[in-house]
Amino acid sequence: MRLVACFAVVLALFGCAIADNAVDRAEFEVQGTRLLMSGEITSRTPGNFERLIAENPQITTIVQGYMPGSLDDEAVVQMGYRVRELGLNTHLTADSEIYSGAVDLFLAGRTRTMQRGAVIGVHSWADGFGEGAQYPRGAPEHRTNADYTADMLGSEAFYWFTLQAAPSRGIHEMTGAEIARFGLLTQAVQN
């Protein structure tokens, strides 16, 4: 009986996760050449992004506000490659807070800028079997994210740092020295 009850709970949680991912939790606002973006990235976000870009070809910069992360890593990678292909810039204001998958999206900017006061938070991923840091470096589970990071920054080093920085249920707010060390910005921090 307990096994059936546990299975029912797992099924309910899995169903909720699928339902959460089916709704776009990212919010967009066009302001001239800037696309203001906040919220969580889901499987619907890349499609909505594509529609906005098609309707507003003048956009040159994505300004990320408060973004707690993503529910779909594949959506982040898909959107990130598209941002880079379009030659768009990414920017963080003094009030911006980006975490987890939203940081991966930030990396896609051709030019990546940030004002003093912005927060960049990273952590390891988990897949239900373990933490990303627990998998050997050669494990296939690392390839997509490690390759994406290398494509965006020229090195996988930042990816491996995020796995060690904090567990999946934690967060590490990066210092200015860490941001510089891994080349997250293409220009100096703005006041």
Question: Could you characterize what this model shows?
Answer:
The protein is an alpha/beta fold and 191 residues long. It has one domain: 2-enoyl-CoA Hydratase, Chain A, domain 1 (Alpha-Beta Complex), CATH 3.90.226. The protein is 40% helix and 21% strand. The protein has 7 helices and 7 strands; from the N terminus they run αββαβαβαββααβα. Strands 1, 2, 3, 4, 5, 6 and 7 form a 7-stranded mixed β-sheet that branches. α5 crosses α6. It is globular, with a radius of gyration of 17 Å. The chain starts with a helix and ends in a 10-residue tail after the last helix. The N terminus is likely disordered.
Number of helices: 7
Q: What's the main sheet like? A: 7 strands, mixed
Distance between the termini: 61 Å
Global shape: globular
Query: What is the CATH topology?
Result: 2-enoyl-CoA Hydratase, Chain A, domain 1
The average pLDDT value, as a whole number, equals 91
> Whole-number radius of gyration?
17 Å
Going by CATH, the homologous superfamily would be 2-enoyl-CoA Hydratase, Chain A, domain 1
Beta-strand percent range: 15-25%
